Amino acid sequence: MSNEPAKDPLPAEAERPPAGLGNAWAVTVGATVLLALAVGAAVALRTPREHGESSGYVGPDRCAKCHPEEHESWAETRMARSFDVLRPGQAVKEKVTAGLDPGRDYTRDPKCLACHTTGYGRVGGFVSIEKTPSLAGVTCEACHGGGGQYVDTVMGPERPTFELAEAREKGLRYPPTQEVCRVCHNPQSPFVGEDYRFDFEERVGQGTHRHIKLKYEEVRRRAQRDADGG
């Protein structure tokens, strides 16, 4: 996946209903319902429900127990910091070019959170920066699936030589597919044109994290030191 910040269109202003649709109360309710459905549909389209919805999320610090070098390199990427793009005054040039208001706070906008956080709208996923700060940004589980069922069960510091097939059955996405990336990297973004094409083969190795073979014995030693309080 690319290290570009996840890019999302912002909610469109509700169109004024044509005259003759009934009283003001009915028009207001109708417009509200339509807008809610539109937002919900957009989030659903940009949320890969097969991506570990019921398993919950553990956060990148848990992943770092076995993958410290990957975690360290991921923390330097734009994906790790993608939530910050939603804050007022951030990515000003890019927002202005895209016709967005750089002074607006988008950190609670559902259509933005779907791609600038991890697990938004799913069980155990991002709720708010106050309640779930570890899931802000595009973290490990955004690509590899919610780890609630496979981390520290079929795989983890105590089971570093896990069976990949077993972990996949529990929700692990490895390797991530281009379909996962394209949920957010697509022409719906206000920052790209309609002719935008995400080149998975070119971008998958750029800006995600370093890919380092897991050293099983080292993982075991770290786990033992932690257990011993050292």
Radius of gyration: 20 Å
Count of helix runs: 10
Q: What is the averaged pLDDT score?
A: 78
Specify the helix fraction band: 25-40%
Overall spatial form? globular
**CATH fold type:** Flavocytochrome C3, Chain A, domain 2
Query: Under the CATH scheme, which class?
Result: Mainly Alpha
Number of domains: 1
Distance N to C terminus:
36 Å
Q: Tell me the β content.
A: under 5%
Largest sheet: none
CATH superfamily: Flavocytochrome C3, Chain A
Order of helices and strands, N to C?
HHHHHHHHHH
Number of separate strands: 0
Structural class: mainly alpha
Q: Which architecture name does CATH use?
A: Orthogonal Bundle
Q: Which segments are poorly predicted (pLDDT under 50) over 5 or more consecutive residues? A: 1-54
Textual characterization of the structure:
The chain is mostly helical and 230 residues long. The chain has one domain: Flavocytochrome C3, Chain A, domain 2 (Orthogonal Bundle). It contains 10 helices and no strands. The radius of gyration is 20 Å and the shape is globular.
Ordered list of secondary-structure elements with their pairings:
Elements (H helix, E strand, L loop, with lengths): L23 H22 L14 H5 L3 H7 L17 H6 L12 H7 L23 H5 L19 H6 L8 H5 L17 H4 L12 H12 L3
